[in-house]
Amino acid sequence: MMGANSSRHAVLWAFGLFTLVLIVAPLIFTSSLAISVLSQIGCAIIICLSFNILFGQGGMLSFGHAVYSGLGAFAAVHAIQLASRGGLAIPLVLIPLVGGLASMLMAALLGFVSTRKAGTTFAMITLGIGELVAAIALMFPGVFGGEGGISINRVYGMPFFGLTFGPALQVYGLIAVYCLVCTVAMFLFTRTPLGRMLNAVRDNPVRAEFIGYDPQRVRHLAFIVSGFFAGVGGALMAIHLEIVTGADSLGMVRSGAYLLFVFIGGAAFFLGPVLGAVLMVCSTVLLSHFTKAWLLYLGLAFVLMVIFAPGGLMGICVSVVHAFRSGRVRRNMGHCLLLCMAAVPEFLGAAALIEMTYHLQLEGDFEPTLHFLNFTLNVHNAVHWTVAAVVMLVCAATVKYALTELERSK
Amino acid sequence: MSFEFLAISLLNGISYGLLLFMLSSGLTLIFSMMGMLNFAHASFYMLGAYLGYSLSDTMGFWPALVAAPCVVGLLGATFERFVLRRVHAFGHVAELLVTFGLSYLVLEIVQLIWGRSVVPYGLPQSLQGPLFSLYGMQFPKSRAFIMLVAVLMLVAVWLMLKRTRMGLVVQAALTHPQMVEALGHNVPRVFMLVFGAGCALAGLAGVIGGNTYVTEPGMAASLGSIIFVVVVVGGLGSLAGAFIASLLIGVVQTFAVGLDVSLAQLLGITDSASSLLQLSISQIAPILPFLLLVLMLIVRPRGLMGRRGE
After folding, report:
1. Cβ B279–A139 below 8 Å, yes or no?
2. Are A341 and A350 in contact (CB under 8 A)?
3. Percent of chain A scored above 70 by pLDDT?
4. b/e map of B77-115 (b: 16 or more CB within 10 Å)?
5. CA–CA gap between residue B233 and residue B305 (Å, rounded)
6. First to last CA, chain B
7. How large is the angle between the packed helices A66-84 and A32-58, nearest 10 degrees?
8. B40 band by pLDDT with thresholds 50, 70 and 90
9. Angle, to 10 degrees, between the axis of helix A95-114 and the axis of helix B288-299?
10. What pLDDT sits at residue B310?
């Protein structure tokens, strides 16, 4: 009983903190870029959490999740156009629900086909259906806007309690409220019988079937729930950006990004996708400005994580906390310090090598020097290459040594 | 629809289908052997094309035709040995994920080395020009060459699996890995060799497909999803199914690309304003494989020749 109570308290604290962050964030980061990034994060959180209903909780590796977020966005755009022409009086605050319902219907239909199989087959089928929808979208420019997409004006109709949703901050407020409500709803979903059955079907479908649940039906229902939230997120994204294009919002690249970042965040934890969503927006908006090699870093981080840290960043955090609590850190202070001190230069050395390679390939002929942190590196100087490589290798060996020692003292 | 159009389209379709089969046979071999899906299979195809392009420049096309697949196979085997084998303990989803990550990395590295635009990977002198022409429609030599290589490869793989001792071990490791291990064969090494061989097949397809079609960074993404369709439609793990499905998809798609009549004309409707019916067959060609996938899943979820109904 104590355990249940304290975990309930922890959950309440976590959601309280989340609300606080949603309120405080726009007060600290006030620039228009920051508000835009925060809004995108809000939408991405909803979509990544909805993806994780399938992936983390249902064991369904979907390669076509952008279909549902993208169709939600298109439904929202058309609903807004209809409403501003005076066809149907839907206030903007309800548009995300329109997107959600549209995606939910689509998920009910397509889920019937895709959830007939589980495992790797499911992955291939969702990929095929994703490609199908993306290709169909390009064939109907009247509905999906073709290459240029569809632009909208989100300011229409009567103000809602004095809010016109013209200013970016008001849209952020709308997104924040939806983000909080959806997050709570999806958390509660994990506690429903359906959510629990979903975990059971993930872990052992034969056994779930034996006790009287049809695994395919459970998967299908979860698919529909996931589709609804993806649609809400996509619709909010369309409201924020005021434009939606088929190639960008429905395609394989987008679906792949959801998978990549949810995994990096940590699919085994409810809050993992939240972390993944923050990273997704930050790296696409910010990291791509800093380095041309950001996709390579992303791919490397992902592959290394699959190999060494299947729990994602959240998993790493949890195991670090465990190590502190169990006293392993105190007992092995030396090795822990060594690990931390070697890991940073290892990554910096690797990053220096990657940056120099990209620089050499892209503009080495015109400009041999590049700035990396506080150093000026010359791509034609063999010493710079050697130093970076040696730093990386020596630190990698140290990290490996520290990790083996830590493992041994378990 | 004239007879010559029919004949040439059929030949083009079969050669494209055979190329698809070269890719899907490697994928199927790896899948049925190790139970895992290699998401990066088309990336190895792309590597084959780019390596074929670079090696052709230095050593000529014919040596490159042998060397490039070998390099690709070696890369594949290395990846299996040092990455996949580690991940194997975490299950199939982790294996799928790590190959998904690999496809990102290969794309990025290819763009880093060879740039982001199309590379001028041309046909060798001896494969240029038409092989024959039928009533004014020409059938290129390069397509015929693809057919030849694919058929040779098919025969070679079949003989290797059915007629050699090594093939016997591979087939046995497929169904009874513990038993084969107990008999003293190194099953992990067999896995590594099969994975390398599958990748080499993809590389070979890349060397001959790259100059017949086009060599650019998007080639893996555009073909990758098609070969998954082939594998699912054919029935997971069935080589015969993959063969039928590749030919089916190759022929259907080639015919569709060549047909410039709208759906409305085809159905005999003259006064239709519906945008769906105004689309020409060639416009809907790209989605046909995926439509086939969906139809197949509704009618027969285990695929044409699939045995298991997971």
Report:
1. yes
2. no
3. 98
4. bebbbebbeebbeeebbbbbbbbbbbbbbbbbbbbbebe
5. 8
6. 42
7. 130
8. very high
9. 70
10. 45
* DSSP 8-class letter at A251: S
Going by C-alpha positions, the residue among A78, A62, A50 that lies closest to residue A224 is A50
Q: Which of A153-162, A184-193, A390-399, B247-256 has the lowest mean pLDDT?
A: A153-162
Measure the CA angle with vertex B152, ends B80 and B156; round to 5°.
55
Q: What is the pLDDT of residue B248?
A: 93
**Residue B94 is nearest to which of A113, A119, A310, comparing CB atoms?**
A310
Q: Determine, for residues A125 and B232 on separate chains, whether the beta-carbon distance falls below 8 Å.
A: yes
pLDDT in tens, A252-275: 889 999 999 999 999 999 999 999
Burial B191-205 (b: 16+ CB within 10 A, else e): bbbbbbbbbbbbbbb
Cβ burial of B211 (10 Å; 0-12, 13-18, 19+) is buried
Residues 129-188 of B with CB under 8 A from A: none
With an 8 Å Cβ cutoff, are A120 and B105 in contact?
no
- Residue B280 DSSP symbol: B
List all residues 6 or more positions away from A95 whose beta carbon is below 8 Å from its beta carbon: A76, A79, A80, A83, A235, A239
Average pLDDT value over all residues in chain A: 88
Average pLDDT over residues A35-53: 95
Q: What is the pLDDT of residues A223-234, one digit of tens each?
A: 999 999 999 999
Strand-pairing partners, residue A172, are none
Q: In angstroms, rounded to a whole number, what is the distance separating the alpha carbons of residues A223 and A272?
A: 19
What ranges make up the beta strands (E) of A19-128? none
CA B176 to chain centre: 27
**Alpha-carbon span B198 to B22, nearest angstrom:** 9
Q: Is the predicted pLDDT of residue B167 greater than 50, yes or no?
A: yes
Instruction: Tell if the CB–CB gap between B301 and A116 is shorter than 8 Å.
Output: yes
Asked if A306's CB is within 8 angstroms of B97's CB, the reply is yes
Which of A132, A203, A294, A362 to mutate to probe the B interface, most B CBs <10 Å?
A132
What residues in B contact A295, CB-CB < 8 Å? Answer: 104, 107-108
* pLDDT tier at B275, thresholds 50, 70, 90: low
Query: Cα–Cα distance between A362 and A366 in angstroms, integer?
Result: 9
Q: Is the pLDDT of residue B52 over 90?
A: yes
B309 pLDDT exceeds 50? Answer: no
> Quick one: average pLDDT of B106-128?
87
**End-to-end CA, chain A:** 31
- Give the alpha-carbon dihedral of B253, B258, B260, B266, to 10 degrees: -60
Residue to substitute from B33, B93, B296, interface A, most A β-carbons within 10 A: B93
Q: Give B205-247 pLDDT, tens digit per residue.
A: 999 999 888 899 989 988 888 998 998 888 887 888 899 999 9
Residues A314-341, mean pLDDT to the nearest whole number = 85
Q: Note whether B266 and B198 are within 8 A (CB).
A: no
Contacts of A116 in chain B (CB under 8 A): 297, 301
DSSP of A123-170: HHHHHHHHHHHHHHHHH-HHHH-TTT-EE-----SS-BTTB-S-SHHH
Q: In b/e form, how buried is each residue of B134-171, taking b as 16+ CB within 10 angstroms? A: eeebebbbbbbbbbebbeebbeebeeebeeeeeeebbe
* Inter-chain touch B221–A298, beta carbons under 8 Å: no
Of A208, A216, A207, A247, give the one whose Cα is nearest residue B297: A216
| Burial (Cβ within 10 Å: 0-12, 13-18, ≥19) of residue A149 | buried
CB atoms within 10 A of CB A328: 15
CB contact under 8 A, B105 and A117: no
ipTM of the complex: 0.87
